[in-house]
Amino acid sequence: KRLEDFLVEHTDKFLSGDECLICHEVSSEYIVRTCVTPNFERGHTYCEDCIKSWLKEDRPNCPYCRVDLLN
Asked: What CA–CA distance (Å, rounded) separates 12 from 45?
């Protein structure tokens, strides 16, 4: 899966209180959610810049739980 496709599928409008698990900042615009399941609806949240930088450095896994995000 391409990075751009991944971001389109996983970017949500920011919900109050969600912070990036990489930089720990609360985003004022959009947040990227990964690892969302029926039992874990909130998933892991990242600001778009942080997750983009993470994935561009040949690290295709969730920074928090290491699930493969791009395959």
From this structure: 10
